[in-house]
Amino acid sequence: MQQGWISLHRKIMEHPLYQEKRKFSRFEAWIDLLLLANHKDNKFLLGNELITVERGSFITSELKLMERWGWGKSKLRSFLEMLENDGMIVKKSDRKKTTITICNYCIYQGSEMENRPQTDYKQTDNGLITDTNNNDNNVNKNIYVEIIGFLNEKAGTNFKHSTNKTRDLIKARLNEGFTINDFKTVIEYCCKEWKGKVFSNGKIGDSYLRPTTLFNNKFDERLNLAKQNKQATPQPNPTYKPFKDDWE
Predict the structure, then answer these.
(1) What is the C-alpha to C-alpha distance for residues 230 and 15, in angstroms, rounded to an integer?
(2) Pairwise CA distance, residues 191 & 229, whole Å
(3) 58 forms bridges with which residues in the sheet?
(4) Quick check: 39 and 29 in contact, CB under 8 A?
(5) What is the CA radius of gyration of the chain?
(6) Would the pTM count as exceeding 0.70?
(7) How does DSSP assign 203-231, residue by residue?
(8) How high is the mean pLDDT in each 10-residue block of the chain (248 residues)?
(9) Domains of the chain: which residue ranges?
(10) 10-131 maps to CATH 1.10.10.10
């Protein structure tokens, strides 16, 4: 099998071959989801509500996808359920919209040119949605500033929000569907559990209160621990013994 990948521009959806009236295969539907996903965090006007849709996500409706792919409701729901069960997407629905998030979106579009100005238009049942990509850099910067500022305040650190490694870690977690409040919950929990304590390896817990440790692939575990222990009464423990490899 050949290795490597190709860049597939969204303009391919404007080609007559792509727009040909047909029933999509499941593979075509999956590629279509990748093409529909936003390549940057965006703010959208949905009716009278301004909402934020993160990179790797997009707003749609079951009716729109059924019409787009030439499918019935049962086939659509079974397909989306299969993708969810396989960890390929996350789907959230309410009365106004359905939001689909591509899991590990950065793997599919990791090297996409992020500085290219672009304006897209999307239609939903509730009216026109306008993509405001021109403001993406400001939106992203505000997210980094808020998260790292909160970390510095709680941990007494002085990390920069502008470093590429820190931003990549934050973006990776956001693409997995985590929110700014989730970041704050993890930061507060780890500061409470680690700060001023000695780990079983002899190191001070404060040294692990850093983005590379807090926002790595154990983020979901820490978030769940934080929620489980939110109401727990702290017990004195001068020598803190976290789970094995908890800090790395």
Answers:
(1) 53
(2) 13
(3) 100
(4) no
(5) 21
(6) no
(7) -BGGGG-SHHHHTSTTHHHHHHHHHHTTT
(8) 71 89 95 91 79 88 94 95 91 88 78 43 41 44 88 92 90 87 92 87 87 92 87 51 48
(9) 10-131, 137-228
(10) yes
